[in-house]
Specification:
Layout lengths: L10 E4 L6 H31 L6 H18 L2 H8 L5 E3 H34 L4 H4 L2 H27 L8 E2 L6 H5 L7 H14 L1 H19 L4 H30 L8 H25 L1 H17 L1
Parallel strand pairs: 1-3
Antiparallel strand pairs: 1-2
């Protein structure tokens, strides 16, 4: 057995699209515009949810959490990615890489749980309307959201610490545009089975389990809606959860496409481009979907805007 050369790695080089300068020049304005829309759209959802008293309900409390998550998730990697698209120095410090890895894992994982919690909220609102305010109390909302944030942060810190304590033997070129944990693990020169086991357990816990917890409430919701006698009543009941269902489909369809498609031995630049758009477009579309599919959000936004104009 050869001795392991434990040369310390002080920084990583994020390869990204460094071999495609024309593509970098194209991606910079596109990603900049999408990031700006993500920030403005999600910030607007949070502001409207806080400023309009009519939206102080469990549904909009969780929607505000989702918007904060989308802002945090994109902000963990997009600003640095944009800087790297314009620079030849595409490095990130060891500590910076660990922080970026941990925060992106935490926010992405929390969104999986939050979407399941929002499905449960819609189930209670449609299938248990008379007891909804009692069952989904403000205290329970805080408990569910807080538990999701804390659990995923602890999970992500654990995964990051295990991964970053591995010896990298001087290898520092990450074949990704962020410190994605699987890309970093490929640089390790020792056994990664423990880290991979933690990632597998986390993936099972935060992908198929929440998806099952989303499908079950929506099956019950569909059965309840079909029993509503009038077409107007069915349409009204479905409209209260259609936006959330659209976000769930967008979120999980892109994840399934990315991680369930056949893996090729060599990384293709098209996969990297799709990953960028998946990571940036999904958070950008969430507030658009909720704004277009929800009259309450549009009315609240108009009210907030008109009150601001009146103040000036």
């Amino acid at each position: 057995m050869e001795p392991v050369n434990k040369t310390a790695v002080s920084e990583f080089f994020l390869k990204g699209f460094s071999g495609y300068p024309a593509l970098e020049r194209l991606l910079f304005p596109l990603c900049s515009a999408m990031y700006l829309v993500t920030l403005l759209g999600n910030a607007a959802i949070v502001a409207v949810s806080v400023l309009d008293a009519r939206l102080h309900t469990p549904m909009y409390f969780f929607l505000g959490n989702l918007s904060i998550l989308d802002i945090c998730y994109t902000s963990t990697f997009v600003p640095l990615m944009l800087a790297h698209l314009l620079s030849t120095q595409k490095t990130i410090s060891f500590i910076g890489c660990a922080i970026q890895m941990c925060l992106s894992l935490a926010t992405g994982s929390t969104e999986c749980l939050l979407l399941a919690i929002m499905a449960y909220d819609r189930y209670l609102a449609i299938c248990r309307p008379l007891r909804y305010t009692v069952l989904m109390s403000h205290r329970l909302c805080l408990l569910l959201a807080g538990a999701a944030w804390v659990f995923c942060l602890i999970k992500s810190v654990t995964e990051t610490v295990i991964a970053m304590k591995l010896p990298f033997c001087g290898h520092h070129v990450v074949s990704h545009f962020t410190c994605e944990i699987l890309a970093v693990l490929k640089l390790a020169c020792s056994d990664t089975s423990v880290s991979e086991a933690f990632l597998l357990a986390g993936a099972i816990l935060l992908l198929p389990v929440p998806l099952a917890l989303i499908c079950l409430p929506y099956t019950l919701i569909l059965a309840t809606i079909l029993r509503v006698p009038s077409a107007t009543g069915r349409r009204k009941a479905f409209s209260t959860c259609s936006a959330h269902l659209a976000v769930v489909l967008l979120f999980y369809s892109t994840i399934i496409f990315m991680y369930m498609k056949p893996k090729s031995k060599e990384a293709h630049i098209s996969d990297e481009v799709f990953t960028v758009f998946y990571a940036v477009v999904t958070p950008m579309l969430n507030p658009v979907i909720y704004s277009l599919r929800n009259k309450e959000v549009k009315e609240a936004a108009k009210k907030v805007c008109s009150s601001r104009k009146a103040c000036t």
